[in-house]
Every structure is written in structure tokens, then in C-alpha cells.
Amino acid sequence: MENQMRDYVIHALKATTSAENQEEATKYLEEASKMIGFAQVLLHITGDESQELAARQAAVIYLKNLINKAWVIEDEDDKKKLLPLSEQDKVPVREKIIDCVVRSPEPIRVHLCSCVQFIMRSDFPHQWPNLIEKVVNLLHTHDAPSWLGALLIIHRLTKIYEYKRQKDKSPLVNAMQEILPILYDRLMRLMNDDSQESCLLQKIILKIFYCLIQFSLNPSMIDLNAFDQWLSMFLAIVQRDVKANLDNLDDEEKSQTIWWKCKKWSLKNITRIFERYGAKGQVEASYQGYAEHYFQRFAANVTSSLLKILADHMKGIYVSERVLFLSLSHMAEAVSHSELWKDVKPHFQDMVQNMLFPLLQYTETEEEMWDEEPEGYVRAKHDIFEELHNPAASAASLLQAASKRVGIMMPVLNFVITKLSDAKTSEKDIDASLNIIGILSQNLIKNKKNKKEVEKLIHAYVYPRLSHPQKFIRARACWVIKEASETPYSNQRILHQVVEGLCERIIRDEELPVRVEAAIAIQHLLQDQEGKIYGLLKPHIRDVMLQILRLLTQTKVDDLTPVVDQIIEHFQEDVIPFAYDVATELVELFHKMTTPDDDEMMDDNTITVMGILSTLDTLLTLVEEKPEILVAVEEVVCRCIVSVFQNYSADYFEEILSLTQSLTTSRVTPSMWAVYGMIYDTFLKEEAGFFGDAMPTLHNYLTVDTETFLSKQEHIVWLLDMCQRVLNDKEAGDEPQQYAAKMLECFVLQCQGKIDTYIPNVILMVNNRLVGEFEENSGELKAQLLTVFLAVIYYNLELFMQILQPNVLEWFFNEVFTHHEHFLGIHNRKLLIYALTAMLRLPSERLPRVILNNPTKVTEICLSLFTGIQKCIKAIAENRAEEDSSSEDDSSDEDELPGRKIDEELKDSDDDVDEGTLEYLESLEADRKKEKKADILNGIGDAALAKELGEYHSDSDDSEEYHDFVEETALEDYDTPIDSEENGLNIFVVFKQRFEEIQKSDHSLFMQLTHGLDQEKMTELQQLFTQCSQQEELENSKRIARTGGYVFDASAPVPSAFDFSTP
User: Fold this and answer.
1) pLDDT the model gives residue 514
2) Which residues does residue 906 pair with via DSSP β-bridges, in sequence order?
3) Poorest-confidence range of 9-18, 462-471, 931-940?
4) Residue (of 593, 579, 481, 499) closest to 539 by Cα position
5) Nearest residue to 219 (alpha-carbon basis) of 289, 157, 270
6) According to the model, what pLDDT value does residue 337 have?
7) DSSP 71
8) Main-chain phi, psi angles of 906, to 5 degrees
9) pTM (2 decimals)?
């Protein structure tokens, strides 16, 4: 039976490789995959050397997909559709797959290794305890395929743990304590053999080690002795000559040979060790011993080895690009250490002229790319990943780092100035010279002695090259101006020439990359020259802006989006007259980037498109007070909004909703009412997660044009349906449901007296949610749901009483009394006070028992709520004062590094201490201390010791005083009529008037409200009435002032009209 099944599967696998029976074969395999034993059959076929390679490849690919899909099923939806692999299949697969890796050829082995990695990720170590034993046994053989299979599996295992935290790596650490010494021994044995097969195994061992030390170094896995041994081995590989004859290969082919790959991975290990564990003064405290050891034993040897590699490159001896890049990158780090700089210094000027200078010239490859595809050239130039392994980038880093040293910068500058002053200098040399000026500009500007010279350099050598006939030189000149954008220009004429030159390039240059560089340079000048160039740029602002937008359309370069934003920010009034043109260009660009061409794949332009939509939003803000322009712009922007909703472009929903919000802030046009329906349709697909993003826009539809909102029943039905769906969604979470409750509350308060027929439905949907299940910390959600009921009390108390049955009413106020501390901010607190005092006006027979039996509790709750309101008002005022103060004190002096002024050059005996690194290490140490303290507290539970450590909290920790006080909640951004400063609800006045009414109409109730208060609460109440009286005087004063009358003195003494004494 098993053999028959295998034959059928083999036949089906072969059929999948041809178009004729592919569909039928795929269906058979899909059905067969549900059978126990299918995975074993696939593995057997994969490892069967008697089968055709095509069938084995089809089998391993099907096996890989099956394991990825069904070994572990985590997604809930997939669990309903897929059948997981049984343990009957898993056990034999785990048992046999490693042997299969060893026996299989490369095309199959790579897929099997992926299978092993997936299985290890879920099963190691608990379900696969003998894995390490199997691998170790393979390493102890004398069989090259066994070593290769073992090393590939170990590498996959280290990749699984590569990015995990140290505390989560214990299974790997336990395994590597046994494996790593064996790997070292094998690498030692292989070193004497420089054959291709031997170097392949060496390369895998080097990659394994890199995974182990990429982010952290475990001392129990690699102690100082092992650290020493491995580094010695890496250095030996870097130093050894490539003996193989590669003369018949071109440079690209040479770099791909195994011998240069071994050098690359050895250098990667050495560089990573130096960066993270070997740089004295710049490593974590736990690695300081490794850093000391590195400098004692290896630092000088590594530096001399790298100098030899660089010397070979200068002599014309082949060095692969990656090895050159890593050597230069390592050297850039090394020269910050005085001990290593002394070794490099004698060679540096020679390196500048004979290696760095040629590397910093434009290349023939770049010339070809510019000529054939300028858009691609621009994108490559502004793609950070393009520079990731580019020797020119590491050459720039080395030059920048070394130029901080005494006596280095001026000879380099003299060298390039000589080049730029010579009329016979080649175009490539001019380009490299300008490049060096740009690289050194930041260090020049920071140096007090030299910063004034930067302006002269730009005037004499950079500005004239803006109009150079050679396109690379024009582009480089623009780039230098960008790099030197912080130059302290003292001569306005020079700055004017620079700005004019850049505008000329943006508007009239025929070369796309030049226009892009000029545009980005303008942005940096706007940012760093403050107001100095506003007047200079103003005459060109329309042409520059529209050209940049066209550049964006043509190149799709993300770096251009901020240029548009900067111009809009700094030239608001100037942009408004041609806002329609800007909007049109932006919308055209949006459509180009979101509409795929028929004959090419769609690029991922998501980030750029988001930037475009954000810029449109900024533009709408500019013209919101210019109705004649806004009408035209809205028509254009609306096309974007409709396109996103109609095409269901979910990536842009947030930005599109923000645009819709901006277009409905002051009025809602028929076009925008049509969008409301699209928002509802989208919500039906997206549900609760979408509702929170849509909330500001929905609030606008409700509050900006309430009359139109109420004029069509579907508008109301859509809103209530969205709220109900969110409240009924058990997976929604608290935040969307709070938004839904807030929207219902806004609906009730905004439509005062106009929605009586909908109020029962509102109460029902909120009540259904209130009686449902809640998470443990859902107090704020409950409070917001209860607030909807309070809004109905404000809307119409009598209607509220008619709808709620007595038992529901009793339950509701019990909930209010229980959760009143979760009413935060000003709005919810004052609405609760209003509702409680409104209930007190009812006859006693209609009052809920919880109020009737404990009136004093009502007063205490009101006092607590007023205290919260007063704290909110005070905190908001203090925050605003603080913001005003901080904006005035925005400028601050630059910090200086310890022992050296910021503008001084480094002496040969100084180390270049990176301030950011120091801050990072200090923060790590602080975090470590906090974790240690927390561990002590969690581990011992000793209150006395906890107090000594400063972590003791009193029994009142759960009080509002202990927690961070919330003065404004996010939901308070959604205004209602009761929040209006002019006509809103002044709860202080309402409270005073209600208590006055009760004192007159029901003295007994009044005494019950106050009689049970202790002396402290009585004093609070007296002070509250004083404030209420002052508020009432203020309200009267405002009202009379609005009619042109006199003003009351709100600070005048207030006589008490209340008698709180016991009768």
C-alpha cells in the first residue's frame, strides 16, 4: 500500500512539472497531503537517489510548503481550514531529515535546510532533544558531506536565535558550549587546505560565529581564551594570500569566489567584535575585559593587516569590493583610538591621494546608468541600501573620522584646492575634490578656527561649478551646498548667488539628477539658514514648487517629499494663490504611484504616497480660510479620497480619513456627504479597527452640519449601526468601544430635542454592552458607556425615566456609584455632576434607592468630581504655560565632550569619544540597575528592603493621587455643545442653583445631603460654594459685558446663603 502510494505521488510530482496534467496532479497532491504518512513519502522521494532530479526537487518543494503550512498552525483562521501534521508524521521526519540533508545535492539540500530550520524553530529543544547529538556525531566523522550537512544545520540553528535576547538564548548556548570547540578544531584542520571544498566549510563556520556574536556575546559560550583563539584564526584568514589563479575571471567573478568570501566573513567577524566588544571606552561594562584583551593582543595586528590590504589595492593588486569596504569601515572606527591612529597616521596622506581620492570619483558604471536611466540613477543615489557595501561610502567615513585629528584637515583641503585651482584638472578629479569638500564640511563648520572659511570655499570653488558643463560636477556642487547647509554666511551676496544658482538648476537644468540634488539642497538651506533665504527664494517659489512636484512624479524619490513640506511651511501665504496647481500635481502624482502600468510591476511606493497625502492635508490647512480656493482644491483632493475607498487601498485609509476630516472641518459639501457613505461601506469590511481612525471625520459630519445630517434617515442609521457593531464586537478591545460610546454621547448631546425616537435604541445598545463581559482593567470603558446614559439625562430627564425600568434605573446608579472614580477629565465629570443633581430634583418616590438611602454619598461623589475638575483646570493651565515657556527657551548651548572643547581638533594622544555611544551605554547601565532592583523586589517581597530601595508604596497606591493624573482624555477632543466656552454647561453655576432649589423646596433632603459629612468635607463644601458663587458672578458679568454693561468683581467676598448647621 505504501509503495503504491509512493508511486502515485511520484507520478503526480512529475506531472506538476508539465503544463498538460499539472492541474489534475496538483489536486491529487492536495488531497493526499491530508493523509497520514504523506510527509514521510515526500521525504523518502526527496532522498531517493534512484529518482529523477526533477521529481526529487518537486518533492522537496512540496515538503517544504507542507511543513511551513502544517507543522505548526498558529493563525485561528488557518486552523479551521488546514489539517496539522500528526505526530506520526513528525517523529519519522525529524528522525530522517538530517541524513537526507547530508546525502542530497545542493539544489535539494537548500530546501531541506529550510525545512530543518522551520522544525527547529518550533520543536528544539523539547520535541527534538537528540538533534545536537546527531549533529555532533556528524562532525566527528571524517566525511566532508557529513561536515557540510552538520555545519549547514548549525548555521540555521544560530539564525533562529540570532536576534533573540540573551535570556532567550539558553538552548543555543547549551548546544554551542559543546559544538563551538569542535568547530574551532575543524577550522584549524581546514586552514591548511585552500581547496574550494575546504574553503566552503570554512566560510560556513565563519558565518556561524558571526550569528553568535552579531548582537551579544555570551561569556559562558565564548570566554577570553576562546575569544583569543577565534580572533587569531580570523586574522590568519585575513592575512593569507589567495593562492588560486583567478586571472581569467573579471572583478565581479573574483569577488564571488570562495576564497574572497572567506576573507569577507573573517573581516566581518573582526569588525563586529571590534565595534561591539573591542573598542575601549565605547563598550558595555560587561564587555570591558574583552575590549582590554583585544587592544593588548589584536588591535595593532588587525590595523597593520588592514593597512596591507589597502596598500595592495593602491598598488593595483586585486581586492574585492566587500573586503575593501570592510577594511575602510574598520579603519574609520580605528582612527578614533589614539593607539591605532599612531599606526595609521604615517600612511594617511598617501591613502588620501592614492586610494580615497580615486574612490570618491564618479564611476563609469554611474555614467552609464545616468545616460541610460536617469530616474533609476536618482533612486539608486538616494537609496540608503545602495551605500551599504559601497567602498566610496566607507572611504568618506574614514576621511571624516581622520579629519578630526590635528594636522590632517588642512593638508587634505590644500590637496583638493590645488586640484580645483588647476584648469587642467580632469572632470573626475574635480568631482572627487568637491566630494571631499562636502565630506569635510561638517567638521569645518564645527571648528571655530575654520568655520568662517567654508563660505569662502563655497564662493570660490563650489558656486562656480553649479553651471559647469559636466553634469556630474553640477550635481556634486548642489550636493556640497546641501552638506554645508549650516555654513554661517556672513556675506548675503554669496548666499544670494547660491540660492539663485540652485533655483536656476531646479527650473532650467536639462539633467534630472541635477534638478533633484538642487531641490534637496534648497530644503536643507531652508532648514538651516532660518529666515536668511526666505526673501531670496520668494520670487521663484511658484516655479520651484511646481518643478519639485514634477520631479517627484518623475523619480518617486522619498527625499523630495520633505522639500515640498518645507516650502509649504515657510511660504504659506505665497503658496495659497497657486494651491490649486499644487494640489493638481500632487493628485496626479498620487494616481501615478497607485495605478500600476500594464507592462510593468508596481513598485512599493507606500511611504511616498503617504507623504503626498500628508502634504495635501497641510495644503488644505493653508486654504481653509480661503473659501474660493478651498472649493477648487476640494474638487481635486476628492478624487484621491474616492479612489482610495473605491479601490479599497487599505494602506492609505488613515491619511484619506485625515483629508476627509480637513475637508469637513468648517462645512460639508455634497461631495463630502457622498464620501460619508463610502466610509460606512469601508467600515462594514474593516469593522472596529477602522472606527477609531474614522472617529474625527464622523464627528465632523455630525457636528459641523447637523441639519443635513439629520435630514436623511440613512445618515443616522449608518452612524448608529457602526456604533452598535463596534459595541457588539467581542474582539474589538476597549479603545474602539470607548470611541463608539463617545460617538453615541455626541449624537445625543448634539441633536438636543430632535432625536427622541432614536434614544431608546441608543440606551438599548449601550445597556447590552454594559451587561456583557469586561476585561479586568476596563473601568474607563464602563465609565464612558455610563456617560451615554448621563447624556440622555441631560437630553431629556423625563424621557430617560420613561425608558428605564425601575430595576434597570437602580442598577444603573449602583454602577455609577461603583465606578465614579473612573470618570476622568472635565467633560465626563461635569456631566455626572449634572445628572446626579438633576435626579435630586425628582420626587422621592421616583428616586433610585441608592440615592434615596444615601444622599450624603451623592454630595461626597460631587465633591470628589469637583476636586478632579479643579485639578484638570490647573494642570491644563500649567501645561500651556510650560509649553509657552519651553518654546521661548528652545535654544540651548551645545554640550561639550569631557576634556575637549567641541571645536578643537583631536590630538594624536586623544581618543574620539562618541557622545551618542556614551549616552547609550549610560542608559543601558541605568536599565540594568532598574532590572536588578525590580528582580530584588519581585524575588524577596521584603517591604522594609523595598522601602530602602525607594520602591515602597503605601496602601493607598491605588488612589488617584498615586497614578499619573489625566487632565485631558483623548475623547475630550470631540466637543459637544456642553463644552462650548460661551454657551456650554458651567457646572459650578448649575450645582449652586440646584442646591439652592433643594434648600428651598426640600430642606429635609438638603440636610441629608450635608449632615453626614465630616468636618473636612464640610469645609470642602463651603469652599466649593464660594467658588460656585464666583463662577456665577463671572457668568453674569460675561452676559452683561456682551450687551455692553458693567463688569462684576469676581474676587469680591461671597456671603454664604447656605446654613449647614444641624436643626
Assistant:
1) 97
2) 405
3) 931-940
4) 499
5) 289
6) 94
7) T
8) -75, 130
9) 0.78
